Amino acid sequence: MIPAEVIVVGSGASGVHAAQALLEAGRRVVLVDAGEKDAHYAPLIPAKDFLTLRRTDPGQHRYFLGDDFEGVPFGPVRVGAQLTPPRQFITRLADRLAPVLSGEFAAMTSLALGGLAAGWGAASLPFIDDDLQGFPLSRADLQPHYDRVAARIGVCGDAHDALAPFMGPVNGMLPPARLDSNAASILKRYRRRSEAFARAGLHVGRARLAFCTVRHAGRGPARYHDMDFWSDHERAVYRPRYTIEELQRRFPDQFVLMMGCLAGSFEEDERAGTVRLHCTEIATGERVVIDGQRLILAAGVFGTARLVAASLGWDGRRLPLLCNPYTYFPALNFNRIGAPAANRRHSLSQLQMIHDPDGTRRHLLSPQLYSYRSLLLFKLVKEAFLGVRDSIGVLRELSESFVILGVHHEDRPHPGKYVVARKASGDSVALEVHWQPTASAERAQQRHEARIRRFLLQLGCLPVGAVRPGPGSSIHYAGTFPMCERGGAATCTPEGLLRATKSVFLADGSTFPHLPAKGLTFTLMANADRVGGAVARSLR
Amino acid sequence: MSANDREFALLARYLIGSVPPARFRARYESGCRALFGDPAAHSAALRLALRRPALLPLLDAGCALRRREDPLRQRLLLLTAILEASPEYADVFLPRTLTWPKLLLALPLRGVFAAAKALAGAVLLLAVREGAGP
């Protein structure tokens, strides 16, 4: 039996920042995680730029295609297609040990060190008050936590560009990332007519990324190797494991990291004011018990729902589920056709757009623009409606001017969208997702997407299709135990306390009552830092 | 030359104009095994291409329109991926920049040829039914 003041379940974006807040407040923390890592592909990838690797590394097929050719997908574009072979460890163990029955809804879960954020695209977009409708929080409540998290992870961007009114200030922003040729030409075109675009509700600026453009917190500066989807050699893109490494270094006497453990359930002793977490050591199957005064669940929306349902016997109970609908538009940037492009670049989003369709800031869309190169040509060839050889010829000539605009839509709770826990064998619980969005929400998305397509054309880009990978494809899950001022057993207090319990707090997306279109990861971290601080104070 | 050797050589010559060294063939075979199970499981279109290599461009274009999951197309894509992920052939797949005038001439011509091939290939595929035998 291992004693702790606070037990944190999950090493992802939320778990590590909740743990850091607790440790900095002087608390003793045990962090439990399955902790799956990639020991196979990472050592194979030399620390060189994409073009050099392509032209010189005879072993590149192993990490670009995968030893089992898992990087050569067939069939329609599916959720998770963005996971390259060196990133597929993120979901591998969860697929085996914690699957979610989800029909058409793609429920991607992770038992990896760093969780889903081990493959995060690094977009760091703070929520403003208009985004926080339905939250029992304001931007002012979150501001110190955004600032603290930004100082830890390093957020780059332009604090004074057209996006500023939709982002609010964040202290200590790093200089913006270098733009690639495609993005620079589109931004230039936008700036020439920025007032007209603003009147139409479109605002474009430099991407805000957890990306160290200069040396920061022992990481970076970015070397622009364009290998961000394949490896973390540069350590420029933030990953939660960097925080874990830091916590182990800074708090050797307060911090215990238990990797290789799968949390199964918890039980409270209300009289003693303690909570006990039951885990299984994955390698041996041995049971492990951890006692603490508080438990913070940050196992991801599905992981946390599974733990709560298994612990409280919530067999058959429906929990609301949110997920940003996602569409992307491949497009040709006419400004760049026939022009050479710079080799040194990053693979993350280049430009951030905000579309405010009705001028109220209440239903924002948040498109992100990427250039296509480091995912290799054959994936584009597969989607083309020309023969393979013809496609190679045409796409080689156009690929440097090829951009992808990913568009997230907001999501709100609806009775047709929920996850339900079912008792499975032994103590285990199986999750089923039911996903039936309303026709009116889908119509609104189509309307907004039509406007986005028109904006693309006005920016000199010809959309060549619209790809909807399907429900769940944004991998932005939330809403199962929403935080609110007053609510039932399956809700949380604004501090993250699960109302069905006395000592169990939730620090991941489970508590978000609404999902604005902005990616939620930066806010997950800020909120986890806030919850960690609240838990530390509750122990005084 | 075995049937697998013939298939590999035919597809490689079609894609890049030459037959790559033996290690690429081994990689292609293990890819077929990993992704498609039986490396010898062919479609009618692939069998026809093996018998009449001159029809391969039409069959490739036709499959892109009408039979996107056909083993012929899937094998071409697999071999494309294998060749692309190698230093020897990387340059065949890396971006090439053309000037606007060249693009304006080359792209429409290429488009017209590709469309004609796709139409002819689609008609050809109508005649090549699955199970019709080699």
Describe it:
- The complex is a heterodimer of chains A (540) and B (134).
- In chain A, the strands form 5 sheets. Chain A has a 6-stranded antiparallel beta sheet with strand order 5-14-15-16-13-19. In chain A, strands 6-3-2-10-21 form a 5-stranded parallel beta sheet.
- In chain A, α1 (13-24) packs parallel to α14 (521-538).
- In chain A, a hairpin with a 5-residue loop joins β17 (417-423) and β18.
- Chain A has helices spanning 13-24, 50-56, 60-65, 89-97, 139-153, 164-167, 181-192, 194-199, 240-250, 300-312, 377-383, 388-398, 439-458, 521-538, and strands at residues 2-3, 6-9, 29-33, 100-101, 202-206, 255-259, 261-269, 274-281, 287-292, 294-297, 318-320, 322-323, 326-333, 351-355, 366-371, 402-408, 417-423, 429-435, 461-463, 477-478, 504-506.
- Chain A has one domain (2-538): FAD/NAD(P)-binding domain (3-Layer(bba) Sandwich).
- The mean pLDDT of chain A is 93.
- With 540 residues, chain A is α/β, with parallel strands linked by helices.
- Chain B is mainly alpha-helical and 134 residues long.
- Chain B has one domain.
- Chain B is 70% helix and 0% strand.
- Chain B is built from 7 helices and no strands.
- Chain B has helices spanning 3-16, 22-36, 44-51, 56-66, 71-84, 90-93, 100-127.
- In chain B, α2 crosses α5 (71-84) and α4 crosses α7 (100-127).
- Chains A and B meet through α2, α3, α11 and α12 of A and α2, α4, α5, α6 and α7 of B.
- Name the poorly predicted regions of chain A: none
Shape of chain A: globular
> Approximately what portion of the residues of chain B adopt beta-strand conformation?
under 5%
Briefly note the structural class of the backbone of chain B.
mainly alpha
Shape assignment of chain B? globular
